Amino acid sequence: MAVAQESDSTKVRSKRNAFGFKENFTELISKPGIRNGLTQIFDDQVILAYGLYKNDKRVGRWRFFKQKDSVEQIFNYDLKKADYNQPINSISYVIDSLKEGDRVIKPVKIGGFRMAFKAIFQESHHYGIPYNSAGYDQFYIFTINERGDLEKVEEKLSSKSYSTNLTELNIKRFLNDEFRFIPAYVNGKPVKSKIVIKAKLTVS
To answer: N or C: which end of the chain has fewer CB within 10 A?
Structure first.
């Protein structure tokens, strides 16, 4: 991967993004605040993602990490496709009106889910939930339209003795690079879909 070098015409800056993660990015001195060149995103000292910007837009192949030294996704922004996407067993997909023999391509969360989860968890409603030593099944439901736009994120908690209603989370302030999707396709046509992620929540 080509890496922009710091020179007389560029400088490296740091800032916190909407998720609270640290971004180290290169900008042109003539265009302050416009990212051009290498950007690295960190949670404390752990690398979450890195890749290139051109005129404040992501270009080329970006790498996103699930944990240290473990790549969750490699996404090619030029070709708009995932070169690598680590399978996640806790994810299922919902596409309405499928018929036998339909050719289905599942939707793709650009950048994987690690950074998105932190944002979502900040908006989750976990107050007043009864203690449960076995924990709760926690479901996040992403509704994605045929353009790949995220329409809403909903959450539900469930256990044998207690469950919550399906609740829509306020994620408007996070609708940026970390909440983009490639839509689902059925027989070559983009369609609306849902991504359902199941996790475990322990209340103590």
So the answer is: C
How do residues 58-113 score in pLDDT, each as one tens digit?
A: 999 999 998 777 899 999 999 999 999 998 888 999 999 999 999 999 999 999 88
Number of residues that make up the chain: 204
DSSP 8-state class, residue 103: -
User: Facing residues of 53 across strands?
Assistant: 37, 58
Contacts of 89 (CB under 8 A, 6+ apart): none
Please give the Cα distance from 139 to 119 (Å, whole number).
15
DSSP 27-95: EETTSTT-EEEEEEEEETTEEEEEEEEETTEEEEEEEEEEETTEEEEEEETTTTEEEEE---TTEEEE-
